[in-house]
Amino acid sequence: MRRVFSSAKAHPYDKVQWTTRTVQMKNALGEKVELANLEFPDFWSQNAVQIATTKYFRGKIGTPEREYSLKTMIDRVVDTIQTWGEKFGHLATRREAQIFADELRTILLHQKAAFNSPVWFNLGTRPDPQCSACFILKVEDDMMSILDWIKTEGVIFKYGSGAGVNLSPLRGCREAIATGGKSSGPLAFMRGADSVAGMIKSGGTTRRAAKMVVMNIDHPDIVDFIKAKQEEERKVRAFMAAGYNMADLNNDAWNSIQFQNANNSVRVTDEFMRAVEHDGEWSTRFRTTGEVAETYRARELMAMIAEAAWESGDPGIQFDTIINDWHTAANTGRINASNPCSEYMHLDNSACNLASINLLTFLCDDNTFAVEDFRHTVRIMILAQEILVDGSSYPTPSIAKNSHDFRQLGLGYANLGAMLLAMGHAYDSEEAAAWTGALTALMTGEAYRQSALVASIIGPFPGFEVNREPMLGVLAKHRAKLAEIKAEHLSESAVLAAAKDAWDGAVIFGKEHGVRNAQATVIAPTGTIALMMDCDSTGIEPVFAHVVLKQLVGGGYMKIVNQAVPRALKTLGYAEKEIEEIVQWTEEKGTVEGAPYLKEKDLAVFDCAVAPSNGKRSISWRGHVRVVAAAQPFISGAISKTFNMPHETTPSEIMESYMLAWQAGIKAFAVYRDGSKSAQPHVTVSGKGGSQQPAQQKLKLEPNKRSLPRTRSSETHKFSIAGHDGYLTYSIYEDGMPAEIFIRLAKQGSTLAGLLDTLAISVSMALQYGVPLKALADKYIYGRFEPAGVTENPEIPIAYSITDYIFRYLALRFLSKDELFELGIGDYPHNADLALEVKALPDAVVSSEKDTAPKSPSHRVVFADTVCRLCGGMMIQTGSCRTCLQCGMASGGCG
User: Fold this and answer.
1) What are the angstrom distances between the C-alpha of 854 and each of 675, 858, 875?
2) What is the 3-state secondary structure (H, E, C) of 102-158?
3) Could you tell me which residue ranges the Ribonucleotide reductase large subunit C-terminal domain spans (predicted)?
């Protein structure tokens, strides 16, 4: 054990400048609470401060037990790990223990790496903390086993983690049971488990429960499983057509939509994929007898999967043969399932604790990579995670036994996309693939090398001898894959040389001593912890957008350009003046497209996961496949990744992507087609306009203006949209309805002032001549243009434009609940008749365009999880989960 980041002469905390910060958060009652005098380093952004304070600081607010300093939070975790390391024999001497603790403290303090959320939630707060984020459960074709599965999931969710299970052992709905009837089938039990998950907030208060349900392609109920979420998505469309606002995830209507707490994946074998290739047949088989249930064209089943994913984003695909070919404990049992985000894949009834390294912190100013610092960080984090295995608690004895016998770890990384951007490499490029492969190889090679060294001191994992052949065989396969990295596309040779050295050590020491951990690395989505590390991209993902909202210390937000953009421009050789103008253009337009001085050949470097609102470019799904394929041969487990596809993608193209992913050796593949989720803020209610025609006819014939007295009542409402403050003043008639409005922004140019004045005059005239406020609101709400973003109004947490905010505010202030319901905002009445009518809607309401998707959609469809249910911020895909860019709320259990 040696010091790299710390010094024996000074405490890690003494080397940084500490500042006091203030954070606003909501208590259990939903009330705003201001926490002042919080202690954080000066280089931590306000957003990272907000994440740490609201998600990970422990103790009841207002009590002495409440954490108010990052020092306390880090010490709580590091001190516990150090104590356990000494207790379990990992840290042999007091000096070694102190060096380890100082190095780990420095790594966490400087945002070089972070543990998964359950460690921050639970470590040091209770004697038996649950520290693993990922669990894989087992269920058998027995009622007690099914009930135990649901109970165990609930316990896992309670402490902030996620779980996956393969339901293929359960008999199909057409199979008989002992009492003479028919089985309920897996989907019936899925509904029950999904409802339980929906009732439990993961980690107590801050996260939604996360679950994965897997079914093998030969199960007799596979067609129902494939279509399960597709059918629920059609229900969402039906509710929207009936007038329900399904953009609000807190709307009670969502309680009628099933399977919303789980990611679904179909397990396919190489045999099935070859049948698809050659247009062969595929048979499903009854679980009780093994007899053929149905025979399909393999392509027919694959087309069903592609069509369902096109329409709803589910199911994903897991390539069973590839997964088990890389299995390190194959002699103990096969891999049947994964965690919710599909990065942890190992034995049933097992667990994995995760951590992620912030790659960008190892990129030096001259764009060289700090190889030895990175290797040291891997060693420290692997040792810390290994110690956590023995100190953690587990929800069942069988999970505890497998966790101790196989000691699965999941070290990964975040900020790859931002690092590639800073280096001037397009995400979809040979250079990006080479760097991804080399860095991933270095990480996993060093992790297994460290695992073998730990094994030389305290022994290999107990299941090693039984699995010596598959374990060492997989290590050899990893090392052999180094030859496929294209060294000519690396700007420096040190990374690949270090990777070869690490893998040589892993294989040699592994043969001599065994390894301490059956699994060492995965790439998780890293949603919340990536934000706490101030990452500009999560997991293996590319940069999501170049213009982001930055939280300010004094409250509010401002738009800033991603910090990697100017660095990339400098790397590409642009002058300072050119960089300034390109950055200014990007901030104003939201895209680099059309920026002055920017060369056409450099545009690809700045491509993001999705096209910006004012741009057309985005990374091709093939580019995503290329990067994941480069990393997968060097990862113990799998990779959680969103394969983004544009709105106009067809099911046929999705089917093609499945074939390419399989051929590339990827273990898990899930697509998100832009706009595949139909729930969106703007709800058009059919049949509501007819009653307005007589009123409009009357206005034409009798244009009577309703005058205001010289002295009239008025109210002024202050608002803030993405840091832009403004004031809305409205005069009120004696009957309580609005008569005129005035709009003023705190900072505005003459053009914007003139436009707002013109709008206010037009609206005031309309109100005075009898145009209903509801009719005006219907035209203006949800219109999209800048400034847009987070507001300070809990009733309107996010505004899509100034006019959107103003008319939603006026509607909430003056209209009835029934009128709000018809507009698709506010609280909604429970209407049993309307709910019943949903079932009787014609097929046209729920039909999808499939292969005839429009090439140029007139608007960008916003799927339900775009808006965070806690703060109203933007939700982005992080692997198979979604994470809020503002508050860090995650829909999964892997961050």
Assistant:
1) 12, 9, 25
2) HHHHHHHHCCCEEECHHHHHHCCCCCCCCCCCEEECCCCCCHHHHHHHHHHHHHHHH
3) 132-672
One-letter identity of residue 390: D
Radius of gyration for the chain, computed over Cα atoms and rounded to the nearest angstrom: 28
Tokens of 228: 């399960």
Active-site residue flag, 352? no
Question: What is the pTM (predicted TM-score) of this model?
Answer: 0.80
From 339, 467, 562, 644, active-site residue: 339
* DSSP label at residue 510: H
Catalytic residue among 131, 341, 535, 608: 341
Task: Answer yes or no: is pLDDT of 712 > 90.
Answer: no
φ, ψ of residue 669 in degrees (nearest 5): -145, 120
Residue 894 catalytic?
Answer: no
Alpha carbons 207 and 244: distance in angstroms, whole number: 25
Lowest-confidence region among 246-255, 471-480, 626-635: 246-255
CA distance 819 to 837: 20
Q: For residue 699, what are its two tokens?
A: 């206005």
Single out the residue of 232, 164, 165, 162 nearest to residue 200, CA to CA: 162
CB neighbours of residue 827 within 10 Å: 12
* Residue 343 is among the residues annotated as catalytic for this protein: yes
Question: Which amino acid, one-letter code, is at 615?
Answer: G
Residue 831 has pLDDT above 80, yes or no: no
In one-letter notation, the amino acid at residue 853 is: A
Statement: residue 880 has pLDDT above 70: no
CA-wise closest residue to 302 among 6, 59, 49, 657:
657
Give CA–CA dist 649/853, Å, rounded: 7
All structural domains of the chain with their residue ranges = 12-130+356-407+422-519, 545-675, 690-823
Determine the residue type at 267. R
* Residues 152, 163 contacting (CB under 8 angstroms): yes
The pLDDT tens digits for 372-393 are 999 999 999 999 999 999 999 9
Cβ-count burial of 851 within 10 angstroms (0-12 exposed, 13-18 middle, 19+ buried)?
A: exposed
What's the CA gap between 757 and 773, in Å, rounded?
A: 18
Secondary structure E strands in 443-596: 547-551, 557-561
Region at 555 (left for phi over 0; alpha for psi -120 to 50; beta for the rest): left
In this structure, are residues 200 and 158 in contact, taking their beta carbons and an 8 Å threshold? yes
Return d(Cα 263, Cα 510) in angstroms, integer: 36
Among 150-154, 267-271, 643-647, 681-685, the range with the most confident prediction by mean pLDDT is 267-271
CA distances 432 to 81, 307, 426, 604, Å, are 36, 31, 7, 12
3-state secondary structure of 760: helix
Instruction: Work out the pLDDT band at 895, boundaries 50, 70, 90.
Output: low
Paired sense of beta strands 724-732 and 210-216, if any = unpaired
Compute the C-alpha angle 570/571/573, nearest 5°.
65
Helix (H, G, I), strand (E, B) or coil at 173: coil
Neighbours of 4 (CB within 10 A): 15
| Distances from the Cα of 16 to the Cα of 10, 106, 357, 409, 609, angstroms | 11, 10, 20, 31, 35
Out of 103, 175, 311, 343, pick the active-site residue.
Answer: 343
CA–CA gap between residue 537 and residue 414 (Å, rounded): 7
Q: What is the signed CA dihedral for 629, 634, 639, 644, rounded to 10 degrees?
A: -20
CA distances from 514 to 332, 449, 450, 499 (A): 17, 10, 11, 20
Tokens encoding 11? 């405490």
Q: What is the mean pLDDT of the chain?
A: 86
E strand intervals along 534-680 = 547-551, 557-561, 643-645, 668-669, 671-673
Which residue, 145, 150, 222, 230, is CA-closest to 187? 222
Pairing between β-strand 409-414 and β-strand 547-551 as defined by DSSP bridges: unpaired
Phi-psi group of 59: left, alpha or beta (phi > 0 → left; psi -120 to 50 → alpha; rest → beta): left
Calpha distance 343→642 (Å, rounded): 12
Do residues 340 and 212 lie in contact, with contact meaning Cβ atoms separated by under 8 Å?
yes
